[in-house]
Amino acid sequence: MKGQWTVLLPEPIEDEARELLEKSGARVVQSPDKTPATVGPLMAEADAVVLRTGIKMNAELLAKGTRLKMVSRTGAGYDNVDVEAATAGNVIVSSSLGANTTTVAEHALALIFALYKQLPILDRETRKGNFKIRYAYLPRDMRGKTLGVIGFGRIGSEIAHACHDSFGMKIIAYDEYLPAKVKAELASWVEFTELNDLCARSDIITMHVPLTEGTKGLIGTSRLALMKKDTVIVNTSRGGVIDETALALALNEKRIGGAGLDVFEDEPPKADNPLLACENAILTPHAAALTQECVVRMAVLGAQRVIDLMNGFEPGNVANPQVLATERWKGLKKKA
Question: From CA 89, how far away is CA 103, in angstroms rounded?
């Protein structure tokens, strides 16, 4: 598209992605900090924003972007973008959907292994000189156990494949959005069931759903009560899908076996969050996708989508495809 583009970075991105933008001819503007007060005035000159997670691109900020054409998320989700407001302004919103699939799946599997093999306890006791902890027989075999997958999308299905193919686990799943045809195609190795049934039958539960009004508090007191005493639950999706107070109580009362959490309702979690004191929980700082390789991959893809649009091509992973039918974008070409 005509003219030099200004690309605003509310937060620094990886060098590889920034260099890609600069080599494309874009003018890159780095905000001194990520606060709305600082980013807001810079929005007026931005043709595109490459956005990480440290600031929410809300309606107020978007309204300041009088030249704004695109918000490109480096991550897979766009929770921190007011997509409705962007759509109203014919601003394209896109994300690096799929770029972190195997990375997040690996992290979820690491949490599952650590919990089921009781690695934190074994490590702690060994360091204290309690070598006899080996005779407590705390670890458990995964082979033959039942994995419950809540949300059978890219990441959930990746984990399911690994557990089924490598460890002979039985796979049950809950996904209210997956088409019936797709469920039928998976029926040879995945049993789709209702959520309460999944909670009651699973030895291990892994969560992969977005945070919406419908999924907020999806796992709470009543569903935790359905779980087996040794069930472990892992969440690498969004913190609000689990009632953290109810989960902490279930963990402290040993009503479930353990939890592995990479996400929290408040991030970072507040100092009084009861999960911080749960010994049978493994907590990580929303880092599942933040490997050395994946952060570069996501940032480069975020930058490349801006370059594609700048050159008149339709970018990938558009969250609001309805804007592509408007007068502003009807001339975009499809990439080969």
Answer: 34
- Amino acid, res. 123: D
In the chain, CATH 3.40.50.720 covers 6-99+292-325, 101-283
Contact between 148 and 174 under an 8 Å Cβ cutoff? The reply is yes
What integer is the mean pLDDT of 98-110?
Answer: 97
CB 224 within 8 A of CB 246: yes
* Homologous superfamily in CATH for domain 101-283: NAD(P)-binding Rossmann-like Domain (3.40.50.720)
104 pLDDT higher than 70:
yes
- For residue range 189-222, list pLDDT tens digits in order: 999 999 999 999 999 999 999 989 999 999 999 9
Backbone angles phi, psi at 107, to 5 degrees: -65, -45
Catalytic residue positions?
238, 267, 286
In 3D space, the residue among 267, 287, 298, 290 whose CA is nearest the CA of residue 51 turns out to be: 298
pLDDT at 147 over 70: yes
Residue 109: pLDDT over 90: yes
Residues 6+ apart with CB under 8 A from 88: none
Which of left, alpha, beta for 44 (phi over 0: left; psi -120 to 50: alpha)? alpha
Split at pLDDT 50, 70, 90, the class of 336 is confident
The β-bridge partners of 27 are: 6
Pick the CATH number of 6-99+292-325 from 3.30.70.260, 3.40.50.12780, 3.40.50.720, 2.120.10.30: 3.40.50.720
The pTM for the full model equals: 0.91
